[in-house]
Amino acid sequence: MSTAPRVEEAKRRDWGHDESGCTTLHIDMDAFYASLEVARHPELKGRPVIIGTGPRSVVSAASYEARRYGINSAMPAARARQLCPDGVFLPVDMAYYRAVSHAIMTEVFHAVTDRVEQVSVDEGYMDVSGALLRWGSPTAIGAWIRAEVERRFHVTCSVGVAANKLVAKMASTNAKPNGMLLIPKARSAEFVQMMPLRGIPGIGPSMERRLNDWGVGSVADLAQLDETTLARATGSKAAAHGLWLASRGLDPREVTPVTPEKSVGSEETLLEDTTDQRTVLRLLREASDEVAASLRRRGLVARTVTVKLRFADLSYRTRAHTMERPTDSAGTLYPECARLLHAMLGMPAGSPADAPLPRLVRLAGMSASGLTEARTTAVQPTLGDVIEEESTPTGTTRSDRLRDAEAALDAVRRRFGKSSAQFGA
C-alpha cells in the first residue's frame, strides 16, 4: 500500500510520447491485499475493505474506498475502526497474497522478459530493452501487462515507464490508481523536480526535517544544492550523492533479476503492553524458532541477529550483533536475542527472567541477516568444539546435537502441523 505523495499535475501534464531510452518499467499493484480480497469476495466490491484485525493490530492495506476515510497503512486497526465503523475488516492472508503475486510475476511479467526484479509482494521492475523487437514499444508492454493482470487476476496495477528505476517508480506512484505514466528521458529532471521531498523513495520524516532545516522544501530546492552542501545537511557523503543524482532524475542502478535474500525475521504484537520479561523472552524464543526453521528450509545460515522492540508510545528500537560463526539453530539465535534484549534496555547481562523490564513493550521480534548458503559456508570449529568431539562417544558437539534435534522438530511439524512441537529454551 503506497503512501508516497502524488502530484495531480504530474498525471495530467502531457509529457510527450518519446519512448527512446525508456526501457525500465515499474509495476505496482493497486491496493493489492484489499483488491485480492475483493477479487475472491466479489460481494465486497465498492465497500471499504481494511486488511488488519484485532485490537492491537495495524492496517496492512486498505481499499481506495477505505482510504477516503483517512485510513492508511501502519495505522492502528482500532483507529481505523473509529474512522470507518462500517468498514469490512479482514485478517492478513499472506499465503494467498504471495501465491497470486508469484503467479502474476511468472505468468505475466516473465512472459515479456526474464529481466524482472521483484522488490516486494506487490511491485517489481522490468528491463524491457531486449523485448522491444517483439513488442514494439515500452508503453505497449505496459498496456498489455495492465490488461492481463486485470483479466486473469481481477486486480489492477499502475505502470511507470522511464529511463531508470527511480523515475519509473515515481511515475507509477503518480499514475495510481490503474494508470500508466510515461516520462521521456529528456524530461526526467523536470518530472522529479515537481515533487515534494517525500516523493523521492528513501526520504523519510527524519531526512525531510534535516533538509527543511537547510531551507529545502521540495525536490526543486534540492536540485539547487551542490554535493558538498548536501553532505553537510545530511551528515553523509553517500546520502548526499544519492540525493544529488535523484534531484536530477538520475539513477545508475540496473534492474537486477535475482536479488539475494537479505534477512529472515519474525515479530508479534502483544494483546496488552507488558513489562513482564518472561512474556517478551517467550516471543523472542518463538521468533528464533520460526526464523531458524525458515533458514533450514531455505538452506541458509545467518551471521547477524537483530532484536526489535516497539514500546507503548509506538516508538521502536533495534539492536544487532554479528556472531563469530553463522548458524541456522534456534539454540544459538535465542541466547543472542536475550543478551541483546538486556543490552538494549540497559539491564545487566543475564538478568533473572522475573526481573521486570524498564519500559512497557508492545511488540517484540527478531531477524537474522548476513545470509549465506549453508552448503557452501565453511564453519571453523572452536577449540572447545574439538575437545568436546574428542571427549564424547559419538564425536559430536552439543550444538551439533541441538541442531539435529531442531531438524527432527522440522520433520514433526511438516507431518503434524506447525504447532505440534515447539523449541524449548
Describe this structure in words.
The chain is an alpha+beta fold and 425 residues long. The chain is built from 17 helices and 13 strands. It has helices at residues 8-12, 32-40, 64-67, 77-83, 94-112, 132-135, 138-153, 165-175, 188-192, 205-213, 219-222, 227-234, 237-246, 277-298, 330-344, 383-391, 398-416, and strands at 24-29, 49-51, 61-62, 88-90, 116-120, 123-127, 157-162, 180-182, 263-274, 300-311, 316-327, 361-369, 372-373. The strands form three sheets. A five-stranded mixed beta sheet has the order 5-6-1-7-8. Strands 9, 10, 11, 12 and 13 form a five-stranded antiparallel beta sheet that branches. A hairpin with a 4-residue loop joins strand 10 and strand 11. Helix 12 packs across helix 13 (237-246). The chain is globular, with a radius of gyration of 25 Å. The two termini are 38 Å apart. The mean pLDDT is 89.
Short summary:
Keywords: Cytoplasm, DNA damage, DNA repair, DNA replication, DNA-binding, DNA-directed DNA polymerase, Magnesium, Metal-binding, Mutator protein, Nucleotidyltransferase, Transferase. The chain is of the alpha+beta class and 425 residues long.
What structural keywords apply?
single chain, 425 residues, alpha+beta, Alpha-Beta Plaits, DNA polymerase, domain 1, Dna Ligase, domain 1, 3 domains, five-stranded mixed beta sheet, five-stranded antiparallel beta sheet, 17 helices
Q: Which strand order do you get reading across the main beta sheet?
A: 5-6-1-7-8
Number of domains: 3
Number of strands: 13
CATH superfamily of the largest domain: Reverse transcriptase/Diguanylate cyclase domain
- Rg (CA only): 25 Å
Relative strand content: 15-25%
